[in-house]
Amino acid sequence: MSAEAPRLYCLPDADLSYAELLQQRFAMQGVVDLPTSGFCLLLDSEGLSLRWCDEAKLGAVKVDFLSGKAAHRRHYGGAEAVSKAVGVKKGQRPSVIDATAGLGRDAFVLANLGCQVTMFERSPWVAALLEDGLNRAKADPEIGEWVAQRMKLVHANSISDIQQHQLQAEVVYLDPMYPHRKKSAQVKKEMRIFQQLVGADADADKLLQQALQIATRRVVVKRPSSAAPLAGKAAANQLNTKTHRFDIYSLI
Ligand SMILES: C[S@@+](CC[C@H](N)C(=O)[O-])C[C@H]1O[C@@H](n2cnc3c(N)ncnc32)[C@H](O)[C@@H]1O
């Protein structure tokens, strides 16, 4: 995991009071020049994005719940595997702890379907991106109200926070980083970049043990299709998609 404090570079049109808030909340270090290597968070009038230089190409990632894939998932996400795995059905909208929130894509699908989702993200880089995306979504007249009500972000290590506050939810959802070795598609490239940024989540086995203690209905783990189950603990139920599977540990 990148042990560096996130570096924040502001373009001239950035809201500087918001930049100050971000710096305090995520212990960021403000920089006056755009870094030419490594990662950097860039703030402009459109929000916060992660920038990096990879194989001499610039890359960027932003959390955007309002357009593109997220908007598509909002309209057509009802039948997505993640919602089936979590157990969303007519009349059943389980409360969810997403203990590995990342960019909040899965959490957004679940919240869109009516689940109350508490998201944990420990990387300050990723948590800042997610919070920024949530802020923009909350200001949107169409989805702002339910995003504010159903999506709560906690910037903390879920393993320690869940223990400390004795949290509970019907479903605990885990999607830890997994070491991808192939370089095939664009998505994999984004995964590789994320691996450099947040590491390989080597403590995911421990997270499963914790999740099994606090979930009241089920624990769902998203894994690449060929990966071994977390903690070597095979799940009684699985849901397979083309690229990954969900291991479902039912508790009732
Ligand atoms: C593969 S990403 C999750 C992607 C997410 N499901 C999505 O839809 O965007 C895994 C994320 O979990 C975070 N993470 C892993 N273990 C964690 C823990 N114990 N507490 C909080 N965050 C954790 C990592 O920092 C990383 O950002």
UniProtKB/TrEMBL annotation:
<protein>
    <recommendedName>
        <fullName>Ribosomal RNA small subunit methyltransferase J</fullName>
        <ecNumber>2.1.1.242</ecNumber>
    </recommendedName>
</protein>
<keyword id="KW-0698">rRNA processing</keyword>
<keyword id="KW-0963">Cytoplasm</keyword>
<dbReference type="GO" id="GO:0008168">
    <property type="term" value="F:methyltransferase activity"/>
</dbReference>
<keyword id="KW-0808">Transferase</keyword>
<comment type="function">
    <text>Specifically methylates the guanosine in position 1516 of 16S rRNA.</text>
</comment>
<feature type="binding site">
    <location>
        <begin position="105"/>
        <end position="106"/>
    </location>
    <ligand>
        <name>S-adenosyl-L-methionine</name>
    </ligand>
</feature>
<keyword id="KW-0489">Methyltransferase</keyword>
<comment type="similarity">
    <text>Belongs to the methyltransferase superfamily. RsmJ family.</text>
</comment>
<dbReference type="InterPro" id="IPR029063">
    <property type="entry name" value="SAM-dependent_MTases_sf"/>
</dbReference>
<dbReference type="InterPro" id="IPR007536">
    <property type="entry name" value="16SrRNA_methylTrfase_J"/>
</dbReference>
<keyword id="KW-0949">S-adenosyl-L-methionine</keyword>
<dbReference type="Pfam" id="PF04445">
    <property type="entry name" value="SAM_MT"/>
</dbReference>
<feature type="binding site">
    <location>
        <position position="175"/>
    </location>
    <ligand>
        <name>S-adenosyl-L-methionine</name>
    </ligand>
</feature>
<dbReference type="GO" id="GO:0032259">
    <property type="term" value="P:methylation"/>
</dbReference>
<feature type="binding site">
    <location>
        <begin position="121"/>
        <end position="122"/>
    </location>
    <ligand>
        <name>S-adenosyl-L-methionine</name>
    </ligand>
</feature>
